[in-house]
Amino acid sequence: MFLSYNLISHSYSINDMVIFVGNGNRDFGLKVAKYFPGCLSNCIINRFSDGEIRIPPIQENIRKKDCILIQSVSCSTQGSVNDILMEMFVLIDALRRASASSITVVLPIFPYQRQDRKSYSRSPISSRMIATFLETQGVSRVIAFDLHASQIQGFFDRVPFDNLYCEPYFIEYIKRNLDLENLIIISPDEGGVKRASRVAKELNCKIGLIHKERDTENQIDTMVLMGDVNNACCFIIDDMIDTGGTACKAANLLKSQGATQIYFGACHGVLSGKAIDNINSSYFEKVIISNTIEIEERFGDNSKIDVLDVSEMCASAIYKSLKGESVSTMI
């Protein structure tokens, strides 16, 4: 089910701005562009016969104008992650060579963000590489949602980075759909405690934690629940859900400890591999994700998955960044 909550005032008017929407989750980009009437470029990226990226002639005059590029670099029906990433780089180059005044890159999901450290000897830090590419191309600002690790912002030395959080949408969803009296917010690991604490504070409810113990091959061996969930409505909140294997194990643990209802909320619904099968056979009442990544285009409608529209928050962040207003009230 696709859900839209109007949490932020909108309808913006900005002169000298042009919005470009890539093929990665194009529906999200078009939703954002609707908040800026008359600013959407007609440019649609396509391919040469050999598969190389082709930027058709840009009909709008963008000299000395603020250009916004919206591209969700993740699972897509329009190509691989790397195809979508290369689209973004090629379009940035075209905008810079056309003398754009500024180039704001909106990445609903930051690519390669889980590769943010050296996890083994001679391993790359791929998210740092993406940051270097963007800075080298001379972009003016980067806007993204729910980074897997907030330190990725520190990979940018010269470019301002705005990291937006989907938490207000999950809070609104919980208020409208869940039993607040018996609610417990669950952090799936130690790294997500701050996120869970912020949500629990807004909802004035308890918080629980799942501690993961890993074996010698860095695979999850056991899970230990910290907190009492007997007869409780549990809401696990995380930044993303990929194959769903770990999330479903967490649901099994909560169910074994007496939880009556279990929900899972994540900003990014990567949903690769057997994710849909895992979710359908799990104890989750619902899995709630945002539309930062293509969902309905890949899977159609699924009764166990609710999708929250966060395009209005993205549009507000774009407006505030161009007008020099504070974004901190949103994050």
From TrEMBL:
<feature type="domain" description="Ribose-phosphate pyrophosphokinase N-terminal">
    <location>
        <begin position="17"/>
        <end position="138"/>
    </location>
</feature>
<dbReference type="InterPro" id="IPR029057">
    <property type="entry name" value="PRTase-like"/>
</dbReference>
<dbReference type="GO" id="GO:0002189">
    <property type="term" value="C:ribose phosphate diphosphokinase complex"/>
</dbReference>
<keyword id="KW-0545">Nucleotide biosynthesis</keyword>
<dbReference type="Pfam" id="PF14572">
    <property type="entry name" value="Pribosyl_synth"/>
</dbReference>
<dbReference type="InterPro" id="IPR029099">
    <property type="entry name" value="Pribosyltran_N"/>
</dbReference>
<keyword id="KW-0418">Kinase</keyword>
<dbReference type="GO" id="GO:0006164">
    <property type="term" value="P:purine nucleotide biosynthetic process"/>
</dbReference>
<dbReference type="GO" id="GO:0005524">
    <property type="term" value="F:ATP binding"/>
</dbReference>
<dbReference type="GO" id="GO:0000287">
    <property type="term" value="F:magnesium ion binding"/>
</dbReference>
<dbReference type="GO" id="GO:0006015">
    <property type="term" value="P:5-phosphoribose 1-diphosphate biosynthetic process"/>
</dbReference>
<protein>
    <recommendedName>
        <fullName>ribose-phosphate diphosphokinase</fullName>
        <ecNumber>2.7.6.1</ecNumber>
    </recommendedName>
</protein>
<keyword id="KW-0547">Nucleotide-binding</keyword>
<dbReference type="InterPro" id="IPR000836">
    <property type="entry name" value="PRTase_dom"/>
</dbReference>
<dbReference type="GO" id="GO:0004749">
    <property type="term" value="F:ribose phosphate diphosphokinase activity"/>
</dbReference>
<dbReference type="InterPro" id="IPR005946">
    <property type="entry name" value="Rib-P_diPkinase"/>
</dbReference>
<dbReference type="GO" id="GO:0016301">
    <property type="term" value="F:kinase activity"/>
</dbReference>
<keyword id="KW-0460">Magnesium</keyword>
<keyword id="KW-0479">Metal-binding</keyword>
<keyword id="KW-0067">ATP-binding</keyword>
<keyword id="KW-0808">Transferase</keyword>
<dbReference type="Pfam" id="PF13793">
    <property type="entry name" value="Pribosyltran_N"/>
</dbReference>
<dbReference type="GO" id="GO:0005737">
    <property type="term" value="C:cytoplasm"/>
</dbReference>
